[in-house]
Amino acid sequence: MKAIKASPNEHRHHYQHTSNAAPIAGDDERSTFFKTRSLSILFKLRKVPRAELKKMCEVFGIKYIDLMCDMPIRWNSTDKMIKAMLRMEKAIRAVLTAQHWDESVRDNLTPTDEDWECLKEILKEQGEKDAKGSVSI
Description:
Number of helices: 6
Shape: globular
Strand content: under 5%
Helix content: 55-70%
Order of helices and strands: EEHHHHHH
Low-confidence stretches: 4-27
Mean pLDDT: 75
Strand order of the largest sheet: 1-2
């Protein structure tokens, strides 16, 4: 799997691809987004993690949703990615805590409580921006 890195000055859709292990992320919003995007790619493209997530969703009674990656040409893809992650948060936490298939994922990409709160805040702020920017005709 290719790791994706974003420099602080780049827009969230412009990424530089590198072929190292999972990168070490910092504590800012961009790092939270980075972890979310990387995990979406991991669960979408890797068979074992995807199977474990599906199984854990069944255990918790959560409807499994294919995690989509955000794309610059799909204006709502980031919103859908974050909503899907939050909807399956409990299952994702369980899978990442118990997984043994990739140490770099466990060490570098497992979202902290602060990361989950940041995702909720991003979604809340986006909803407020959408409400302010909507025009009724």
